[in-house]
Amino acid sequence: MNRTTLRQATGPIGFMLIVLACWFVAGMVADRMVQQELDAALHAQRQMSASIADNMAEVIASDLAMSRAIPATMAELDVVQNALVQSRNYAANGESTEPALRAALLKDPRMAAVTTFLQRAQGFSGLDKVWIVNANGVCVASSDVANGAQKQRDSFVGVDMRVRAYLTNTLLGAFSEAYGVGRRSGEPGIYIAAPVYSDGQLAGAVVAKVGIARLRHWVAHAGTFVADENGVIIMAHDSKLEGRALPNSGIARMSVAERKLNYFRETFPNIQIYVDAQVREQAPWVPAAVAGQLFGMAGGAGPSLYQKRGGLNSGLSAHLVDPLSAWPELLRNHKRDHMLVFLTLAGTVALAWVITVSYVRERRHHRATRDLAEQLQSANTLLSAEARHDVLTGALSRRYFLDLLRHEIDRAHLGNQPLCMAIADLDHFKQINDRFGHATGDRALEHFVETCRAELRGGDAIGRLGGEEFGLLLPATDLAGGREVVERLRLRLKAIPSPKLPASVTLSVSIGITELSLDDLPERIMSRADTALYAAKSGGRDRTEALPPDDTAPPARAVANDW
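^ that's the sequence the OP posted. Answer follows.
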């Protein structure tokens, strides 16, 4: 190379070409570096998001299964079937006849027993309302009947329920479940309707409502929301999303009258969840395949991971929009990396400094990856513990208790050993909460679980089924021995008060117990234990009732009084 050529290469044009080449190469290197960080961040956060969405879906499915079991069980009871058979002649002839029909039903002595039953069932089941509807679509008894003329007029008794969407299929003989807004209360909830048969013929339906307020734990995590079968968001961690509709959902195909009937409103603004096109605009270095996995939402902060879980044995679907927490840092890192690599290529003088920065940068990258992995492991451990044990009392969670019940049933059948299951319910627990506050109620629940652990064997199990209701598993124990165990437990609870509770608080418990039969399934033994519990509460509370495995009715009152 002669002097002229050298002078041209080191002149302004050559210098600019070298700078541009260094800038271009530095951009490629920076793209590759930040892509690796993006892959690590996406992998860790995608696992966490999937775990959150799966846990949310499991909780929803478990809660709905328990809620369905209550009206389904009530539909098998004689008191409900007899009431519907006796009320089959009541029929609606328009809204003008509802007052007279209500008055006739409220005066009908045959309906009084089932009304009292529904009120008690609502009290210990955790439902907001329970009512029964005859085959003509008329509500003949309801748990919301109360003393006073105005309160009776506000009840469902005498109302023609046929136009309710959740009841249409049930009056044709199908189990149904739907979200809706109460016409009188204006409160949203999940409506569950179970058909009732008597002598093989459809006699009516049992309908139960679970208020949305009771189910807010479904959306406890930021970014979560639940949509119904029509694509309407019925609850969300961010309440501003409630009442919006998913794109291309069924609500768009409903008429205005149908929308008003089900939701008490006409318009449902769409919520936009879309592949975030701004990702490639902000960061061209993001691969197209990766950008297609990042979603945006109107008003959202940056690209997000979107998880959806359907198939929850209902029309509901669980959703999670989880913003990519590492995104702002990735954008900053890319700009910084671009400049650092450019400076490295542009001058050998800064070589040692650039090597040091790269070394520190690599260590921080590995440390961030390790920290993310440790956070993921901690989150999985926490989710596993929360799924296994009730946070307040330390008893087994309802889902884990049901899994253990299935396991113990299989083991008892395989080893030809007896197995007892009991359901215990603290008496007048609502009065404790109302009089002394929920903190005292929590202490009462903890004291009951501590008493159970002191009285039961190490191989026995206690799980919290919901509220103040607990399940007890007594392996290798027949019905007589199991009854003695739970009776000692009941007496111990009364005899040894908790020092954490006010002296005026007196705890007692009603317990229903049954034994496993040869062909029992979990649902049947739970239903039988629940029937025994109902007999204990109907017999005056603070007692134990046992139901043999070959029986389907509560024990006689005389037997209960012996205990």
